[in-house]
Amino acid sequence: MTNIRETIAAARGQDDPLLPTDQEAPRFTTSQFNNGTQSQEILELPSATLSISTLSFKDGFHIVLFDGVVCQPVTMPIRDSGEYLSLAFLKNGAVNTRDHQGDFSYSAEPGCGALMRHGSFSGEATFMPSDTFQMVSICMPRGYLAEFESPFERIPEHSGNLFAYLPVTVTPTMRQCVDLLLEAPKNDVSGQLFLNAKACELMSLTVQALLNQNPHPPGLNPQDVKRIYRARDILDEQLESPPTIPKLARLIGTNDFKLKRDFRMILNTTPHAYVIRRRMEVAHEALTLTDTSITAIAQKVGYNNVSHFSSTFHKHYGVLPKQLKQACQARSQPQFL
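Given the sequence above, the corresponding structure tokens read:
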């Protein structure tokens, strides 16, 4: 399983590193406790400071807590070695993740959760500007909990690397667990026991949430599910000019009615709403990470009318594209006394 130290080492070894090579190595402390090891890393960059606390238990179970400030977008490589499962819950901040093959990308927003199956994944994560960045990740070996394996039977792998991703509906009780994990003391035995108990409770709540999400909708066979994920992939590939519903249905070998019904049953949205969301995610990434003009970004995601694009973006994120771009540019300017 990868960790932050391996990630930083990988970045420093690249010809064009994603992280500055002239920075000091992160401060790292480690200590033993009865059932495992606790470590803390302080990653300090010109544009971000992140504290990463890791509790590693002897049965291969890990709790990783992120807390910090991100002033400007920070991109870090992801190198997964070995197969494992992880639960991730983002309380504050935003992270855009993509693989190097271009087969998978996802924008995580505050309050979201996900169950992931990892393999030999190679990609990068971009931490977006945030006054407070907080995330909880729970990692475990494959087979640790059978209830976390079965949902992936219907999820196609990305890039043939065993990686798969499943959104989790986060309930108020789950959010409370996330808050307690982030706030609990970590340096004494009682704190470590509490963290372990809360992580197990969060896993139990996730199992219940997955059951409530009905991972095997009635009336759908595995071929139906594969068709819908193929439809999703086609929409991702053709965001600028997506196919019509009839054409998309023909491409995946079904009819209009079944496409719309199954798409909603499996992905909990409509094809049209999915395209809008993905367009806005791509636009958000371009606005915050590139110097591309708003007009060019609008055209890239299928909008010839910039006003229509701005209105849709504002409805989705609560901020106009121009305002977001100006805020990112202001953060990137050098500050003088």
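The first strand starts at residue 27 and ends at 33. Try to locate this feature in the token string yourself.
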